[in-house]
Amino acid sequence: MATQNKLAAQDIDLDKVSVIVGGKVHSDWSAYGIDSDFLIPADAWSMRLGLPAGIFPEGVARGVPVQVRVGPDVVMSGRIDRVSRTVSRDQVSLSVTGRDGAAILVDCASPLLTSRQASLEEVIAQVVRPLGIKNIELHAESSIRNDKITTEPGERAWDILLRACAGRGLWPWFRPDGTLVIGGPDYTAAPVATLVMRRSGEGNNLLSLTDESSMERSFSRLTVLAQGHAHSTNNKKELGIIDVSSSDSLAVSGDTDTTETELDTGLPETGQHGLQFVVEDPTVTYYRPQVVVMHDADDLEQVRYRARKMMADARLEGYSLIARVQGHRTSDGVLWEPGQRIHVISEPHGIDAIYF
């Protein structure tokens, strides 16, 4: 029995790509493509299958749930977007394309929502869960509440989710098993592989490595401007009944100090204006300013989160490292997926660092 199990394990092709539809496995593809990006929603896949018998498989239809696997490992879970059946003189073929669970958030409008003092969990419950996404993980130290969240008719669910996450410096993405994760990068995770390119060729495992930098979306100085509606979440000041006939009651108490920021921007109870936060990128060596307007913010802290997130995104878009490797897995057999950390050593580029 042990020998049979060993032979069965050897027969498993760890790099064979298959699509599971309705419990049936389709794996004899003539061509396939899998595109997965940590920062781009709705990862996509496409398959093309030749049918020598001329019979189209049953159950392969638009909207059907699917799993895309490489060997025994799931790389993407979602639904079929498009099915194309072609019959010509010399062949019969089937082409199938689809995306992961983020597709419905990108394509569909958010339910109308007007809520005060809404936490991120409540936004998820009212915007994401009604669209059929049930497996959700929230990785955040604290849940900051938005004083007011309002959706416009026709606004995409993904945009609402991004807005709720951006105010906390978080980012949403989907795992291969279809779980929606909201959090940030794990800088403590160990690299899954070391990619090497040396002039001598010793230990090389890279087919190619492209180092690309751009100035198009980089800025030396990013200013975020905002204003806030009136709300009553500031509990620093006590409110009470005042006797206007008494001069004593009109005196300002030392316990109700007004900060310089409040003098400049107004109080939360009456609405705030002129909220501003500035971040700078020291890697941009000449003056390239940018100003972004947030139409509504609860407080300066939320503006600060948004400004730092925007600057981090701008720096991220200004640099990319593109590596081509052989196969779908690392040398340890781990399947490649977005969000992993890798150690890159390249003598021609002068690189010896860890990247996501």
Describe the 3D structure:
There is one protein chain. The chain is an alpha+beta fold and 356 residues long. It folds into 4 domains: 2-100, Roll (Phage tail proteins - horseshoe like beta roll fold); 105-183, Baseplate protein-like domains (Phage tail protein beta-alpha-beta fold), CATH 3.55.50; 193-214 and 319-355, no CATH class; 221-317, no CATH class. 16% of the residues lie in helices and 34% in strands. It has helices spanning 2-11, 103-107, 120-128, 157-166, 260-265, 300-317, and strands at residues 17-21, 24-26, 31-35, 44-50, 65-70, 73-87, 92-100, 114-118, 136-138, 146-150, 171-174, 180-183, 193-197, 208-213, 221-228, 272-280, 289-294, 319-324, 342-346, 351-355. The strands form 6 sheets. A 7-stranded antiparallel beta sheet has the order 2-1-5-6-7-4-3, with no helix packed on it. A 3-stranded mixed beta sheet has the order 9-12-11, with helices on one face. A hairpin with a 2-residue loop joins strand 1 and strand 2 (24-26). The longest helix has 18 residues, at 300-317. The chain is globular, with a radius of gyration of 27 Å. The two termini are 43 Å apart. Residues 313-356 form the Tail protein NMB1110-like C-terminal domain.
